[in-house]
Amino acid sequence: MNVIIIEDEKPAARRLNRMLADLNITVHTMLHSVQESIEWFSNNEHPDLIFLDIQLSDGLSFEIFDVVTIKSSIIFTTAYDEYALKAFKLNSIDYLLKPIDDEELDIAVKKYQEQLPKMQQLQVDFEDIKKLLINPMDRTYKKRFTAKVGQHLKIFSVEDIECFYSENKGTYLHTTDNRNYLIDTTLESLEEELNPQQFFRVSRKFYININAIKDIISYTNSRLQIKLNHFNEQEVIVARERVKDFKMWLE
């Protein structure tokens, strides 16, 4: 399989290269800008698969497709907010949210290998996606969640939710009155439903409300431990690969 990476942050490109090597995938070329990519595609055989960062140092990577017709399959790598992810899903495009997780990368590669004929036939409307990225639509996020308690449904405002977490294959919300409720969703589904200014996914297991943070403590292996106002049933740890984005989110 012929694979290339287009990523303007060279440390991120090298990290992705190492992660793919661990999956026995050899990256033949790493490109770092729109212009460099246009020149390369104009003079080289196109690869089977491209790992493509959206925002490059000299513009959006979609500008490459304005000049060169690329028939390769693409897996986007992006730090963009949820409105962009919705655009990818609507166009059946695979993506990896930065910082890239090893397990999610493995899943994306296997999905590509299993659906190769279908992906090669996919016609992507880059213009529609570019419009969403440059002029994103006003997004509305969920303001309430419901949980079944016995024969009743309880309604919770997002302002009254300290965190969402997964446990034993279930997803729970924890309220400001220090109670847990099982809800019928997944943390992955919450990516499109929660306001990213208010909630942040600190790990594969936790989404936390910025208004519920009581303390932030340095933790082992360059991670952070979060103390919430009421939730104390288990440790809330910011995954090492999410620490940088978490600190930016706090600001």
Provide the β-strand percentage band.
Answer: 25-35%
Spans where pLDDT lies below 50 across 5 or more residues:
none
Number of helices: 9
Q: What integer value in Å does the Rg equal?
A: 20 Å
Sheet with most strands: 5 strands, parallel
Question: Level of helix content?
Answer: 25-40%
End-to-end Cα distance: 42 Å
Shape category? elongated
Mean pLDDT: 85
SSE succession: EHEHEEEHEHEHHHEEEEEHEEEEEH
Instruction: Give me the count of strands.
Output: 17
Structural class: alpha/beta
Strands of the largest sheet, in order across it? 2-1-3-6-7
Question: Top keywords for this entry?
Answer:
251 residues, alpha/beta, 5-stranded antiparallel β-sheet, 9 helices, CheY-like_superfamily
Task: Tell me what you see in this structure.
The chain starts with a strand and ends with a helix. The protein is elongated and about 65 Å long. The protein has 9 helices and 17 strands. The protein has 251 residues and is α/β, with parallel strands linked by helices. The chain has a 5-stranded parallel beta sheet with strand order 2-1-3-6-7, sandwiched between helices. Strands 12-11-10-14-13 form a 5-stranded antiparallel beta sheet, with no helix packed on it. The chain has a 3-stranded antiparallel beta sheet with strand order 15-16-17, with no helix packed on it. It has helices at 10-22, 34-43, 63-67, 82-90, 102-114, 116-121, 126-134, 187-190, 243-250, and strands at residues 3-6, 27-31, 49-53, 55-56, 59-60, 73-78, 94-97, 144-149, 152-157, 161-167, 170-175, 180-183, 199-201, 206-209, 213-218, 224-228, 236-238. The relative contact order is 0.09.
